[in-house]
Amino acid sequence: MTRQEKTDLFNTILAEHCNLIYKVCRGYASDDDHLKDLYQEVLANVWEGLESFTNRCRLSTWLYRVAINSCITDFRRSGRHSTGRVSIDDIGRELPYIPDDRMHKIKLMYRLISALDRADRALVMMWLDGQSYEEISEVTGISRNNVASRLHRLRQRLAAANPEKTNTHL
Question: With contact defined as beta carbons under 8 Å apart, do 121 and 114 qualify?
Fold first, then answer.
């Protein structure tokens, strides 16, 4: 891969997949400064790893793997033990206009997801982003059947934890 090809691919990633990277980093960040640091760390790791990307999987699958591994490495290295909670007020600022009743359900869903452990949170986030069980399996290194079982149990746990017992369609 030439330097120009690498630069072009990196720019494509920034243009088309920055939200994916941001979302993963958000799930592991302890605060806004840490979020910015994680985002930069992931981008540096993406740049360094671009030449190893072989098109054997979708680019988004590879990016998930790089982002999650970078965040987990940072978490272990830094010894940061955030609560893993996302400010519910911050969620509304990151989304386009959504009617109040729907926004309430989205905030509730994020609150429930933020209470999960880091591994389960990653599974749910990838599933909500439309990743297939096979893609999630490839990113996480667990079998497709295990992904399906864990997601099924997680959806049940999230539904049971919903204090409003409304239909949140997780």
Answer: yes
